[in-house]
Queue: 3 jobs
Job 1
Amino acid sequence: MTSSVISRWGECYDQRHTWAFRAYEKFMAALSPEVREHLAYKTVEDETYVVVFGRTQVGKTTLVMDLMGVSPSALVRVSKVLRGGRTVGRSSTATATEYRRSPDDRWGLRSERTRITRWFDNDTEMTQAFADLRQSMQERRLNLSEPCVVHIPQDCLDSENRHPLARMLDLPGDAPADDVEQAYVQEIARRYAPLADLILLVGRGDDLSFLSPEGLTLPGIEDWQSVPGRFRIVTTYSFTAGSVRDLVRERPGVLSPDIFRDRLIEQIEKSCALNPLARRPQNYFPLEFGQSWMDEQGRTDSLYERISPLIAELKQQLIADIEASTTPLARLRGAVLAHGVVSRVKAVQLAQLDESLKALHAQLNRVGEDRKQAQMIIADVDATVESEKRRLVHLAKENLREDLDQRFELDGKTSLAGARKSVLDFKLVINDAKASLSLRVKASRPLTVLVGEGADKDHDGAIKTRRRFWSKLAVGEHEPEIDGILRATFKSLQVRLNSYWFDTYWFTGPDSDYSQDHDLLVNCLKVAEENLLKAAHQWWLAVAERELANLLQEQESRQVNLEVCRAEACRLDAEANRSAKQYRNAHLARLKFEQRMDKDLAESKRFNDALDTAYLEELRRRDRSHTRHESPAFRFINLFGAIQLIDARRELALITDDN
């Protein structure tokens, strides 16, 4: 085989992906300058762009420093500077921070406030500058729209060990203190997560809930299971739990990373379901680092000595993944993946959003029904309160006294008919009168009969109200009082009659004993009626005042209940407004998400169309080249190169299925 044929074969092999890179560059040229700056074609010498995301105080910054190559001896120094004067144990990340290697031994800091990189010769100046930056953000004097950039001095880096040439974006924790910080984190994630060559999701090995859907809500991160090839799961404090120590003791000899990767996946799936694509063990890195891990050295269980080689192996694998993610072909694969999974992400997210909308709609309907019920109760209680208010106006004490003074008398009449020709007859008449008076008192009720002036008001509303009021009252038993009044009233007549020696009246003329006893009997009856009426007046008044006090107390209770109902109605109104706002916001969020996904789908289709167009153009070019050559060897090489081209296209088409 001649050298020209060999050269042609090498050329075909080297150019098997060139057409795809041309399509990629053409596609990138249509994007915004900012996105194009980060996503455009880069050579293998360019720095990898890594995003690190996780909750606060899980060791993200320490991991970043370790991967950047900060030496163990310089780690304390670097950590102190990056905390900006804050005490140990508080998050050192004031804002989204992009870490880079400094070209020399100086610190570098660039923020939105200055727009240029400031260089510092000593740690004190850098510490103060970082503290000022954090203070400005906390006081809302600096609304960051991009990460600040920190350059780590060369004299802090370990030159002996292998570390990737990378820029690393350390995102703030995923639970910001307020809406301003939340909006900032969302915006940074939305703009920079898609630009990453690799994303590290970091959490503690003893708290794996950071991988649950509720814990991963930032744009570009929430769909990690759809494109797991772009993500690596890193756990810190992975070997300090008692169960892990037991596992190490149970397995003598050299430990394999697969043991702990499988265990980590098993533990994750207890709280977070993983799809088959996301269960690839090579994407999981249980690690340990920092001072707490260094303190494990020399302990009797030899945990540090046995685990350290395994951790070193895992770190080197992670470094290799970071380095591999920045090759041109890897970035091309990333672009295919980033656009090829949009439809799947859209379907999953829309299903979740629709479920949330359904729940919010049900909540809105439930609150609406509660509001209707509250309004009905308020209307009913309010009507009762107003009705009772009008009724109580008619039942004022002065009106009740007026009823007793002007519209109350003893029921019926007491007759004095009888022979009365003897003392015994008089005594019998007195007994009958007493019995009649007692019955009349018991049968009497205010407004049963109208007396005196105003009798023509029987159909007046106030009179009817009070008539119903009196009709429901009862004075109870007052037999002893009635007997006492009757005895006292008829006592003088009884004594006079008891003093006679003879039973028969011999004379009945005007001045006779008979005439005097008769007049005395009539007078006693009159006085008895007056005394009994006065006593009944007091009895009925007392009962009426007690009942009126009860009615007033009930009215107060109704009024309180009405106010409670109104307060509840106000609460339900506020809840309904919140629910309606939540529903509108959720509906708007769904609409915006769908529009964003539709745009991405259109871009995805355009990118795939660009790949197809470039692929067909390359086939035609090779076909023309094939027909121009008469040499069978060249024609064979060209034909075999075309087959390689087909394999390359099929390889790109299958990327989404493999990931």
Note: Residues 34-45 have pLDDT under 50 and may be disordered.
Job 2
Amino acid sequence: MKRGSFRPACCCFILWLALVCKLDAAPKVHGIEGTPSLSLKEAGEVLVGELQCSNCHEGERDDPLARKRGPNLREVGRRLDPGYLLEFLTNPHDAHGETKMPDLMGSMSAGQRKDSASALSAFLRSLGKEKSFPQWEEQGNSKRGKVLFEEVGCMACHAAPSEGPARESEAGLGSLVHVAGKYDRPSLAGFLHEPLRVRKSGRMPDFHLTRSEANDLAEYLVRGRQAKIDPPKIVAEKIEKGRVLFGQLNCVACHSLEGMPASKPALPMKNLRKDRGCLSEKPQGVPDYGLSGFQRKAIGQALAEGPESYPPERMIKRALTAFNCIACHERDDYGGPSVKLKSSMKSSQEGLGDHGRFPPSLSLVGAKLKPGWINKVMFDGDSARPYVHTRMPSFGEQNLGFLPALFSQVDQLPEVKFPEIPRKKRGEMRSAGHKLVGDKGLNCVACHVFNGKVAGGFKGLDLLASYDRLNPDWFVPFMLNPAKFRPGIVMPIYWSNGKGAHEDILDGNASAQLHAIWHYLSYGQGAPTPSGIGNPGTNLEVADRARVYRGRSRVAGYRGISVGFPEGIHYAFNAETGALSALWKGEFVSVGWGGQGAGNFNPRSRSVQLSQDFAFQPVNQRGKPWPILPKMTKENPVNPDPLYPKNLGYRFRGYSLDDHGVPTFSYEFGELAVEDFSRPQTRAEVHLLRRTLRITSPAQDSVLFRALVGKIEREKEGIFATPELRLKILDGQPRLREGREGNVELIIELSLKKGKSEFVFDYEALR
């Protein structure tokens, strides 16, 4: 029985039969079969993009969903098990039955296929040093990995490996049974940590895993791994033969490699016909994708009707299907999580019901959310719902950068344009909004967080983010009738027939009250805390182990982290930029309210304020002005560079605590992985904070580190001081140079070896 020779009506039946008869599975493209949202032609259009047809056939280059490339093969020898690589090249469908990689050697004899695969394997293994992942040495935790797999969103596309092939096929989910043979734990952890680095066009998204989480998830997926038998040792003759084959088989059509010739021309898309070439039931001399009968018919229909311009809503539907967004999100009449997936979706706020567990609807999302916020959520990992355990994955701006504008174009509601508020009336409107939000008004704070602060038992969406997130065109009709936009929501209707429940506020006029709330929220961090939010002011003490408190702070920014030690020396870390931003002695911090949470903290003693700018730059930037954190003022409240840390290559990866509660902060600078931790060092009456930077580099290199800014003087060799701080340099090559606003900058060039390098700095507060 051959692949694609029949098409039974029931998809589950064909999948079951494929297992029983040990047939090769068709390439897995989620959401195209058995869904009423796509016509046969639309399903074919999705397949044409996902199978990368336009890499060989001209005609779809203007379609952003057809610009798909294969994985980066530059370091494939480091990432993949060599035995698996050989097996996959010999017969992709046997090694991974649902792969979108075609069989390119179908016309060869068994002996020719074996020799060609061996040569290709040798060539690809020569592209990167094998098994060199020093930054992933630490062991993962399989139990934690299982929880991550079940909760963050993996189950939207994959069945758990423990469920076996039968369960995977029954569920219609992507199989992971090949993963343990394909990767070892370090290489899989590296891929899971940043999948888009290897597969820029890939459909495996970035879930913003920390290094620890990536290790745990990899440990769960490869537990019990048995490596494939290693192929023969690679020799120069085979490498050259493989390089030639790589070009002859037209691998360069999908996998670009430096120095390799461009792909050979093929028939234009308009000249393709169903049941011929790659669409034949038994392809010969052309790439064999192992297409199912449905897939061949769908592609044939798309080709027969010819290319056309895609209306915006159709482009949205195709994109949401191609990237399987509809596995978690519903939009209008299509998509949404399955019953099984819903059961795995968890929340830290169970009282919010399903709205606190499930990802939000995408219906009218372009009218609801501002394009800037959609970009932050899709590409920068921002979230307004921290209580939802399922994470919003990032497929990269390169793949879906066109989608926010399409949402805004398609999703329209009647325009709401609030009238300009005269300057003399702004205080009155702000006060009205302030009262309405608090417990003396509509009591919004009973169910919502406000600026990270909690009043009631619920911790719903932070109200203060509303102005940055929402369009007034959606805000006003939603507030007037929440259930119309989110059926089943517990939020009540506060205005009926144009009148508000509180007639003492703006005469109860619904339009005026909504305008007042919107105006009040527009003040952002400057909005006064509403009534009902407890803010008693709590002093945190440090006992016999280190104490960590996170929150907003004047000394550490929006994502501040304070660390206190029993020795009486403390510091603050700005997670937004990776900067050690303040140092002080004496008492620890005062917070805005009791408990651990995203509140406000400030030192209880006078602190030494350090720079909050990102502290690293490539060595080739030597002599150039240091890029500083943009500052906003009341006159210029808009951040001119909201992606400042990201544009410099910075990415915060969380922190871990040792047995004494001391945190190690993990972040990245380009390809460099940094572990940053500080501990007290007591010498007689001198209290020092010793900061250690462990930097993992893939190659020998150098990097610039700006250690100090201010009125700096060199006291003696390796020791520099400002009026408030003394810094001892134990490693690196320091030099002073003029900075901005009359300040001096201490720039240290750190020489990195391949693997881990360690640098130590001693900070002493002089007051």
Note: Residues 1-24, 165-172, 594-598 have pLDDT under 50 and may be disordered.
Job 3
Amino acid sequence: MPLPALPAFCGLIGNPAYIGPGAGFALGGSFLFALAGMALAFVALLAWPVRVAVRLARTARRGGKARAIRVVTLGLDGLDPVLARKWMATGDLPHLARMRDEGGFCPLGTTWPAMSPVGWSTFATGVDPSGHNIFDFLSRDKATHLPVLSSTRLKTASVGRRLGPIPLPGGGHPFELLRRSKPFWTTCGEQGVPSSILRIPITFPPDRFAGKQLSAMCVPDLRGTQGTFTHFTEPGEDGHGRTTGGERRTLTAVGLNRWTGLLPGPDRSDGTGPLLMPVTVTVDPQARRAEFMLDGRSFTLGEDEYSDWIPVCFVEGRRRAHGICRLRVTSLTPRFSFYVTPLNIDPLHPAFPISQPPHYSLALARLHGRFATLGLAEDTWALNERVIDEQAFLDQAWAIHAERERQFFHALDRQPDGVVSVVFDATDRIQHMFFRYLEPDHPANAGKDTERHKDAVFDLYRRADDLVGRVLAKLGPDDVLLVVSDHGFKSFRRGVNLNAWFRRHGYLFLKDDPVEGPLPPIPDGKRCEANEVDWSRTRAYTNGLAGFYLNIEGREKDGCVPPSEAADLKQELIANLRGLPDPEGGGEAITELWAAEDIYHGPYRENGPDVIVGYKPGYRTDWDAAVGAVTDRIISDNTRSWSGDHCMDPRQVPGVLFSNREFTAVRPDLRDIAPSVLDLLGLPIPGHMTGRSIFAPEPEQES
């Protein structure tokens, strides 16, 4: 998985969050970067015989310990064990059923909390969030209380390196990866074991190790955001302005059935707004076609048809920023409109490395064509905002999936040993947006189609099973395949705003709230942002999807909770929120809460939420609270297309583990995958990993 500022984030949640003004542009120098990439490729070619000799020697040394020559981990983000069992029982998932029967299958314990950046970081490192420092899609800035990306940040010290007017890519990557600990592929590289790591979340900037890697979640778009679409329409009431996850722009008539608009790109260096690129369209109403001209390229589209990836280059002086986008006509009549995807970084001309080695993305693009590079490329917010419809979203998601399949099978065909590891996102994104079809009374169904795509989730699982079958067909007798998901899925019917509950019960105050007496209501439809909160009186607050924080004196700016009182306040809140009733929905919204110190014991535990909230299936943090906003309603219906989720009680949303080889673990969890990969390859398991190999004998239970 799009938050207030972060659309594609977990799929996630709100307006695009900017990583930094013009971050996707001013750090470029793509010509020099490409030149450096070619030089590195030449050096790599010269060093190839030496690398092969070293690999053979190290392979011979570990040969007696290895259980497998090659380990393939196929990540299917969000694949759910309940649905998998259901459709295996009906015979609709024959390849997964074969793995279950010949090797093994069981639910896979997920992380606290259960979400993709946390889970896949644990998958990679073999430690829980307190060991790798990723606790959520978002964290909070202790100085401002505002939500910030939890996994990557722009290094301001790297901005401004220039050769005359040309920005230089040297001095290290302009972004910093905030994930800590060592992933298993780094250990493989140290031992001379080859690896191809494709689109594993939280790998941007790419790891520097002796292997290949294509970055995934948190790769920004060309505007420096986590994904900002643009929607152009003829003049009308809804023609202009920002919208969650994107921007609406009005077309200008320049002749009969001829329109022009300005596509926003990265920010100008002087901070006066984005660079703009003209796009011109001539509509033929009889043929129901539209001819586009964008950055010197002409192409024609019918209704409900995507273009190929269109390269665009924004220029300011001698600086160039290369991106790619796809366009789709969303309406020909009565008002013409079209959609432009977020501007992905062009893999043929990246302004900074999105792969390891840096030229790997260029090689993939030359071999298989340009491809989506945005961390969360499937545009969930465009569907949430009804800018595109369900069919447009499916077309986009499956096109991106096909790109990744080509890259994955290319690696599988050319790497006969070591590790090939990939994560496919369609299983997560499609369930997020189509789960409502599984429940006729879901609040998100109001006013939307409930028939045409009612089998979208079922079709998703069948396609996932077909992919597994094609992978199995390429394996040798000494290959092990692990099919893994980081969490499962449940319906998301009702959203909970803990900030509203905190305010209602005297733990959070707005600046206009009286010191004593009843609080004034917040008008319907209005939300109060973090800068409207009176932090000098506020003791508890939330942002992100995992849990909530205390406003501790000496830790947060304007903190008012003495550290000596923090433990008692946590227990008070846990007791008051456990079993939170939902009078309108019936039943309870929260099943359990956990104090951080009770579940986290690693070196980074202080960076996470103070309390993790386990929502009952059907409930989740609402869209406003996820970005730190305060509203008047504590619990409300979720009416967005984003209708399925997993940010709930982790015990209720385990992932899956399938293996083509029998394993001994009875209750494996995500921490066990990294040590299992290393164990299969005959490599030592680093001491920092808290998981254990699923193929090792189960420890004897104390009597």
Note: Confidence is low (pLDDT under 50) at residues 1-30, 161-169.
